[in-house]
């Protein structure tokens, strides 16, 4: 007998931390066989460079040790969500999801159902071993009636535990799926049938034809507390009557390939076409001290657009920047906040927990965020806010009559421009006034009639600040 070298898998599984050819699976487990079938199909169809496999949470969470292609790990049951994102971004990808029955049939079932209903372009490999393998053998949605598990010690009772979930049959109610088949890896003839199914699912991805779903009946000797042969017999004798093998649907011949995406536009080209006409490429500048800024207030006060404006100024200045909004469910009047990071290097996370600068437009946001500002940082707060909460030691608090000024200008929605002026005058963003003003103008490019008023308000706010400085100098003299 000639043993063929496995293709589509890494030569050595060094991602596991050891140079080994053995997987982490138990002897007799179906995962290893299914891994090989997937690797082989991907390789033989020439899809390795286009393949992206999204792994599950479960025994096969380490699939990325083995498959020699792009791999992603998603949270428990969320492979369809991650896959949907990939689908939107990479039409050329041959996308495959690999999920267990706990992952897909329980915590992630709605994701699966909706992705199937949308006809996402993905091959879904669903490993039904009738148990939660990784966590030690709890009842899965596919556990058979009467079977004892960690969570059904007296056997699965339909009265209390419901009936086994037939995922293929449920998905077969939907319009969009192109191909649905249930196979088994319990013996060689079944594995050969499974092999053909995996190949077909990948062909559908290669040809951009849509959603393909394969369920594998797969032995788990460890949770069954039996040997490999008995576990395989369990699949044939016990699982198959409940989950009959066969193809439920194959529309692959008639399915239409999706059109290739129009040639994508380069980032430079994209920004050349954008209104500002400025090339966006950020420049690495290790000497630039990264700034974390939080803007907070009520929805409708313009805190989110103020954040965008500062991020836009950072972009114009060729800094790396992120803008990250958070707001309540209300359209207007609820709490709104956003975080902006300005950096001289790539930014890992847009989350700002302890800002250098906090801009507060209302009382609740001051009470909520004042204590989070770093020592040496700055709080710019509207003068209407009562400073009941003490700011941390070493934090400068600057009160700005932004709302008053905006009312004076008959432009109550422009209080955020007063805050922008304060940011510019205090020099806490590390950005030039020129770019902050250019960003302000650009935020009104669709309402040019407001540009001039906001520029005037910006200047007036700065004059007010300069006067404050003069007053405090006078006070020092006397
Ligand atoms: C959000 C979340 N809930 C629960 C867990 C614990 N957990 C890890 S694997 C698993 C079940 C996996 O079972 P299955 O999908 O059937 O895969 P198998 O291990 O049998 O291959 C669970 C519940 C988790 N990691 N994350």
Could you explain the architecture of this structure?
The chain has 478 residues and is α/β, with parallel strands linked by helices. It is built from 16 helices and 13 strands. It has a 7-stranded mixed sheet with strand order 2-1-3-4-6-5-7, with helices on both faces. A 6-stranded mixed sheet has the order 9-10-8-11-12-13, with helices on both faces. Strand 9 and strand 10 form a beta hairpin. Helix 1 crosses helix 7, helix 3 packs across helix 4 and helix 14 packs across helix 16. The termini are far apart. The model has no long low-confidence stretch (mean pLDDT 92). Thiamine diphosphate binds next to helix 3.
CATH architecture descriptor of the largest domain: 3-Layer(aba) Sandwich
Counting structural domains, the number is 2
Number of strands: 13
> How does the overall form come out from the CA principal axes?
elongated
CATH class categorisation of the largest domain: Alpha Beta
Q: What amount of the residues lies in strands?
A: 15-25%
Sheet/helix structural class: alpha/beta
List the helices and strands and how they pair.
Elements: H1 30-44, E1 51-55, E2 70-73, H2 79-89, E3 94-100, H3 101-107, H4 109-118, E4 123-128, H5 158-161, H6 167-171, E5 179-184, H7 188-206, E6 212-217, H8 221-224, H9 228-242, E7 246-250, H10 267-273, E8 291-298, H11 303-316, E9 320-327, E10 335-343, E11 357-360, H12 363-369, E12 378-382, E13 396-400, H13 402-408, H14 415-426, H15 433-443, H16 451-477
Parallel strand pairs: 1-2, 1-3, 3-4, 4-6, 5-6, 8-11, 11-12, 12-13
Antiparallel strand pairs: 5-7, 8-10, 9-10
Helix pairs in contact: 1-7, 3-4, 11-14, 11-15, 13-14, 14-16
The structure holds thiamine diphosphate (TPP).
